């Protein structure tokens, strides 16, 4: 299904026809990106690295530290990586009480639960942080059918592993799910998994970048009216046909 076809449907209609809903957590349900950004910055400072906001957004945001740390300059033994991950986890856990909730997030989950729509949260964070946020900040853990955390997948986002794991656990095909994500890496994971109805939440990334990654609609929050009337992705111009002779490689 193309972006143009998606734009002819409202996200409310897509949600009504979804057999399950997939939710990212950080940046999608809670405004925790500032805490994660500061934990990464502490690591960058310790390694004397300069990372721009755009580089951080594309390379680090929404991804598991264990997937990214081996590619950074400096010591990268398994023990050092585990130590760095532990330090970052300790930092964010200490800041959990400061994390605001995305407007409408808890209400969306409660409404979906009341409608009998299965839900999965798929996060790049660890299980301890996920439980702290879902049970503490949002108070909705008991309403979520499946929670897939970093410990449960071999490859983190933008790999589709987490979302495919969630779909298998829910017993629903990816193309029958609707999803909410805030990062390009997360949206790429969804598209690779085969999820087509994707709402990009613009809490951490511009609408243009989310659309570029594959979002069908964008919204600034999850309040019912806003999520139901999310802006459609602009129609992309048709790609002209390629001459068969031109496309043949020697």
Low-pLDDT ranges? 1-7, 236-250
Measured as a percent range, the helix fraction is 40-55%
**Secondary-structure-derived class:** alpha/beta
CA(first)-CA(last) distance: 33 Å
Oligomerization status of the protein chains: single chain
How many individual helices?
13
Radius of gyration, in angstroms, nearest whole number: 19 Å
- As laid out across the biggest beta sheet, the strand order is 3-2-1-4-5-6-7
H-E string: HHEHHHHHEHEHEHEHEHEH
Beta-strand residue percentage: 5-15%
* Total number of beta strands: 7
Overall pLDDT? 84
Instruction: Report the principal-axis shape.
Output: globular
Summarize this structure as a short list of keywords or feature phrases:
250 residues; globular; seven-stranded mixed sheet; disordered C terminus; alpha/beta
């Amino acid at each position: 299904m193309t972006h143009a076809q998606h734009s002819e449907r409202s996200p409310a209609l897509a949600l009504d026809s979804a057999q399950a809903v997939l939710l990212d957590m950080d940046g999608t349900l809670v405004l925790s990106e500032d805490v994660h950004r500061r934990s990464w910055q502490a690591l960058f400072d310790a390694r004397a690295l300069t990372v721009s906001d755009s580089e951080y957004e594309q390379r680090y945001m929404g991804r598991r530290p264990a997937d990214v740390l081996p590619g950074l300059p400096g010591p990268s033994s398994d023990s050092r990586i585990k130590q760095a991950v532990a330090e970052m986890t300790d930092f964010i856990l200490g800041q959990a009480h400061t994390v605001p909730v995305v407007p409408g997030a808890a209400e969306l989950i409660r409404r979906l639960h009341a409608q009998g729509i299965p839900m999965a949260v798929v996060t790049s964070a660890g299980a301890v942080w996920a439980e702290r946020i879902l049970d503490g900040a949002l108070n909705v853990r008991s309403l979520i059918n499946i929670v897939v955390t970093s410990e449960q997948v071999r490859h983190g986002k933008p790999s589709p592993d987490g979302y495919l794991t969630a779909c298998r656990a829910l017993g629903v095909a990816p193309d029958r799910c609707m999803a909410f994500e805030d990062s390009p890496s997360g949206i790429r994971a969804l598209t690779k998994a085969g999820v087509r109805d994707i709402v990009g939440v613009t809490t951490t990334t511009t609408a243009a970048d989310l659309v570029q990654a594959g979002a069908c609609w964008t919204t600034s929050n999850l309040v019912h009216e806003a999520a139901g009337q999310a802006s459609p992705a602009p129609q992309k111009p048709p790609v002209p046909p390629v001459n068969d002779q031109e496309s043949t490689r020697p």
